[in-house]
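Support case: S-adenosylmethionine complex. Customer-provided input:
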Amino acid sequence: MSIQKKIDTIIKSVGSINIQDFVEISNFDKDSGFYNKPSIEKIGKNGQFITSPEISSLFSMALANQFLKEFPNTKNINLLELGPGNGLLTIDIYHYLKSKNININDITLLERSDYFRKKISEKSELKVNFIENINDYKIKDENTLFIYSNEFFDAFGSKQFIFNNGNFNEIKISKSNDKYFLIQDSAAISGELIEHYSKYKFKDNDIIEHSNLVLNLLSDIQNLNCKKYFFTTTDYGYTKFPLKSTLRILSNHKKLSLFDKFENVDYSFGVNFELLSNFFVKKNPSIISQKELIYNNLPNNYLKSSDKNIMEIIDLISGEKFNDIGKVFLNFSFKRNETISKI
Ligand SMILES: C[S@@+](CC[C@H](N)C(=O)[O-])C[C@H]1O[C@@H](n2cnc3c(N)ncnc32)[C@H](O)[C@@H]1O
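Agent response - structure generated as follows:
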């Protein structure tokens, strides 16, 4: 069944569908969702959009060097990537670390899409384990873990709420006379949202995005049973609520408006880096721009190269030229390094 038919069926039975469910079905429905449907190329030049790991392995080199600065003497590493897509980032990180004589104990990928899991299993020369939940991840106490992701959090569905007369209403999608439109429904968690975001003075028509799916994942990372790890994630997003919808709809490298098209479309949201930062505040996290990530972590022979190709690649992976997005690309990272007490 097509995505549109599935959405219509829900609207017909309950009157509307919220934005989070709409996006989750569109992206991850088992048969027709963007990330599962086998018949369409997804990420890359021939796909619907392109990402930094697909542009060049220099992006992975920058991430691996960011990790090595934090754990310079480690010779045994476990890799864990969240949302690998085609899997290029992990392959490049693996080869880069190997070239530095570092041993990779094992490689684990958290990937929800059956399509990407199958593609990676069939095409990758590396032995990888897939997990569906971070709680399933196990590591020996003495091992160091490198957790990384690129454009992962933006693929999570988020609810949208609009402020009016002192309350938040939830934005939902409805349909009548063959036309889709947005409605506002009273939200039981309005008070909770106002309290949660009490530092903001909201005005009428301000919109916020709030995702329990993201919050649950952050809790899982927080509870990870691992004493020594470095976590880094890069995405487009913001450090203060933009107070409007950040929903981005892409197909064939072009931006679309909601309801233009339902099939073969990728939906994503700007990532709330302030939320990430608050969540891991005790770990003293750092937020830098993607440009800083690249310039702080690539060797000078690339940064100072006069080769036009390299200069163009560095420009692209610095995240400032993804015109189809037009948002700010940021990197969030922190380190956990607890000494293991011996009895
Ligand atoms: C925008 S793509 C980015 C892929 C890749 N990291 C890249 O940069 O090309 C988002 C990826 O995250 C995966 N993903 C999204 N939500 C997920 C979740 N809840 N659990 C596991 N994987 C998820 C998608 O299936 C997809 O592989």
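The pocket of S-adenosylmethionine is lined by residues 35, 43, 51, 53-54, 83-85, 110-113, 116, 150-152, 155-156 (CB under 6 Å).

Case will auto-close in a few days if no follow-up is received.
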